[in-house]
Specification:
The chain has helices spanning 3-18, 22-89. It is an all-alpha fold and 90 residues long. The chain has one domain. The radius of gyration is 31 Å and the shape is rod-shaped.
Length: 90
């Protein structure tokens, strides 16, 4: 359910609750408000989780890039060492 649908349904519910007798209205209004607060906290948590996942993805990309660069450098240095070693044998 998207945000606008949730808000619409919650507003409809609050409208229906307002027509109830006072004793029931108070209890259900409190429950609806708690639901709204939980929904807001859940949205914040999902947003924070998404940010964390985005940061993790970016960090992994940098780590893979660094690993590939290190492998290339390693290969290049090994080649230099091998060429230097074979030059001494002559």
């Amino acid at each position: 359910m998207d945000e606008s649908t949730f808000q619409t349904k919650l507003n409809e519910l609050m409208g229906q609750i307002s027509s109830l007798p006072p004793a029931e209205r108070e209890k259900l209004t409190r429950l609806a408000e708690q639901t709204k607060e939980r929904h807001t906290r859940l949205k914040k948590s999902v947003g924070a989780l998404q940010e964390s996942l985005d940061y993790l993805r970016l960090s992994l990309k940098y780590m893979v890039f660094d690993l590939e660069a290190t492998r290339r450098e390693n290969s290049y240095l090994r080649t230099l060492l091998e060429n230097e070693g074979s030059g001494d044998a002559e």
